[in-house]
Write a structure and sequence with these properties.
Length: 362
């Protein structure tokens, strides 16, 4: 794999960075999304539903033996579905998520992993996974991870600021606002009538805004990202108020910005960008954000259908996926179905390791 693949990946990062909430009133598309970045900090509790579906994934390495092995793996991933249902509240901090993974193909399987997180602890329920013999004594138990103790064991200092959702949201607000501010509204933003946006039943929106990248604008989009947006985003990451949150050395940020803006880096970027169209084909790539009457994001969906090829390596990748994220009961009192695991339902990491060691599988 060479740098052209990295450049294509950057294109995906660009679009992923604008998965945003909605706006305060029906405004011009770009203005709506920019205003939305500040609105997200007001979400102190919500229910959420996330879904990711791999519609197609094909990898051609140019070698029959490698393709046979790869094909077995891809048969499981094609049409695979990942869903995450969750509940979140900021005060006191509590989150619970239930992740369900459905794999298709000849070795179809499905398993569910509930998780709970508080300000200092993480609980993960041990699932029953086909073809993976886990001790019966731990299946169905919640493994308790003390985040502070874990950090100390790894020789690091526990950083409670990393759990500060409000500060994370504020940082996201600044980054997103800066990123969106660099893009031309007519080229990248559209407004879609809610009735034509394919919103799921029960989702009501007064405005749906679309951010779209095509073969025609992907080069310009990447140029704006690298030359204009990223240097400003690095400056944001270096602010004093985010030092405890990010634990990033100021010298490392300064070096990254200097290297990004160096003449050598610019020349290499321009060289790779020049023939990007011969390596990346965007059949479809758009992101829709639906906004309700209370000015909150209630639904987002992304459709990506791309092809990436590297003639020098003889490798070709085709990927098509859809993803969606839905919010409800925003800023309402939440009901937690799992709660905080206690008593016999909980085992420690040490007990988990002992159980694996006893069965000779650890």
């Amino acid at each position: 794999m060479n740098k052209k693949w990295g450049l294509s990946a950057a294109a995906l990062l660009l679009t992923a960075a604008v998965i945003l909430p909605g706006c305060a009133k029906k405004e011009a598309p770009k203005e709506a999304l920019t205003a939305a970045a500040s609105k997200v900090a007001a979400m102190t509790s919500y229910e959420m539903k996330t879904k990711l579906t791999v519609n197609d994934l094909t990898i051609d390495t140019g070698t029959s033996e490698a393709d046979a092995t790869t094909g077995q793996i891809l048969s499981m991933l094609k049409n695979a579905e990942l869903t995450v249902d969750g509940v979140y509240q900021a005060e006191p901090m509590q989150t619970e998520l239930t992740m369900v993974l459905n794999l298709k193909g000849d070795m179809a399987m499905s398993f569910t992993v509930p998780m709970v997180m508080t300000a200092e602890k993480l609980y993960v329920k041990v699932p029953s996974i086909p073809f993976l013999p886990l001790p019966e004594t731990i299946v169905g138990k919640f493994v308790e991870v003390d985040l502070k103790e874990l950090a100390e064991q790894e020789g690091a200092e526990f950083n409670p600021s990393a759990m500060d959702t409000q500060k994370v949201q504020k940082l996201s607000n600044e980054v997103v606002s800066t990123l969106l501010g660099e893009y031309d509204e007519e080229k990248y933003f559209n407004e879609i009538k809610p009735k034509e946006a394919g919103l799921p039943e029960g989702v009501e929106a007064k405005q749906v805004v679309q951010f779209q990248v095509t073969n025609d604008n992907v080069k310009e989009a990447l140029t704006i990202l690298v030359n204009n947006a990223l240097p400003k985003i690095i400056d944001i990451l270096g602010k004093d108020e985010y030092k405890e949150l990010l634990k990033i050395d100021a010298a490392d940020l300064a070096k990254a910005k200097e290297e990004l803006q160096s003449s050598e880096a610019r020349a290499e970027f321009d060289k790779d960008l020049a023939d990007l169209n011969t390596h990346l084909t965007i059949n479809q790539f758009h992101l829709n954000t639906a906004i309700n009457d209370d000015n909150f994001p209630v639904y987002q969906d992304v459709l990506m259908d791309i092809k990436v090829n590297d003639p020098e390596q003889g490798e070709n990748v085709a990927l098509s996926l859809t993803a969606s994220n839905q919010y409800s009961k925003i800023n309402e009192k939440q009901t937690f179905q799992i709660g905080i695991p206690q008593g016999e339902d909980v085992i420690t990491l040490e007990e988990l390791q002992q159980q694996f060691g006893a069965t000779g599988t650890y």
